[in-house]
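Revision sheet: structure tokens.
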Amino acid sequence: MIHLISVYIDLAIGLILAFLLLSLLVSGINEAFVRLLGIRSKFLWAYLRDTLDGSEDGRSWIPSKIADVFAKLPFSRDDPRPAHSPDPAPAVVEPMRVDPAAVQASEEARERVSEEIAEGIAPEAAEGADPAGSPDASTGGSSGSSGSQPGGGPASGEPVGAPAPQVDMTARLYERLQEIDHPKGARTSIANIPPERFSGAVMELVAAEEGGIDGLLAKLEAINSPLAGHLKGVWEGAQRDLPRFRKGVEDWFNGEMQRLSTLYARYVKWVVFALGVVLTLAFSMDALEYGKTLLRDNAYRAGVSAIAGGGGDGYAALKDKCAGGEIGLAEPYQCVTESLSSPALVKIFDHAIVSVTIPPDGSADPSFHWNGGAWWDRLITPGHWPGYLLTMVALLFGASFWWDVLRRLTGVRGDRS
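Predicted:
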């Protein structure tokens, strides 16, 4: 009974080690692509673009589809990250060049003209005006109604208000964070902003405005920045107390970063699944077949141990294995040496499209072999697909999960000092 339990524990450890190795390979490839393409930094600044400046043409910078995760965010030419600047942050923060009163008057003028057009007033008033909005020269300017619309509205040819001024709030935020940036390319590499640093940057922007927080909020509303609603809620919740406002901004941004991390992890799972599928098929890792190999390997080693201890129970298995079986070596000593130096874990990637053979005695360099034909035969064999699917599902749990299971099973404890 104890021997049977030991066999199953060996089987479990062997499978866990295989899943751990593959999961580490998946994580390594994923991390390499993330660092190479700056995915984390792009994800963060895509969120900041949406929060500070709003979306363009009704589309969000944050990817909303799985295809966007694989194509749009990594390879799109519309990089949400600001351009990297090697200069230190400006010592003086310039106020936003926005006049909220003028913007509001412009909005009211546009609304008034829209209402007049809807009521059919503006087209009639426009008949007596030239394209420049002045009265017709033939009237000599004597007509009092030809240069203005009824009801005291502006002439149809006069500018009725320009759109809200364009202010790049993301670039203004980056100016306050330049000192934590690292030169890795033309774009910023900042992928994490501490909440304390973000609230400090907001307070620096507040200090630049003449009206303080109320002045900043008025200008943010004038440029239609979504940040205005968030900061206004924090400001009112802090009961207009400046220290509590700064702490509230920290808490709000920290919560947003946690939400963003959850969204990022959800998207990364799809990437990890895709990599797991590719690696499972490339290495032809059939978990069920590998489990059987582990059991046969354990039984063979038990036979060798029995013979070494003076028993003859394992002689038959040893004879079948060495005399033209799996190894094909008739000389017992060489057969045992080859088998014990090549456990099942070493042969885990023998069925890959390109296999690697490492000599047990280190007498030669590792050799690579093209197994395209055998690999394709295994791939189109339906009997291997249950094992492939089991491996794909196992890789979804990640390397940290399998390392934790291995530690619990073997009793290995981490350093808690």
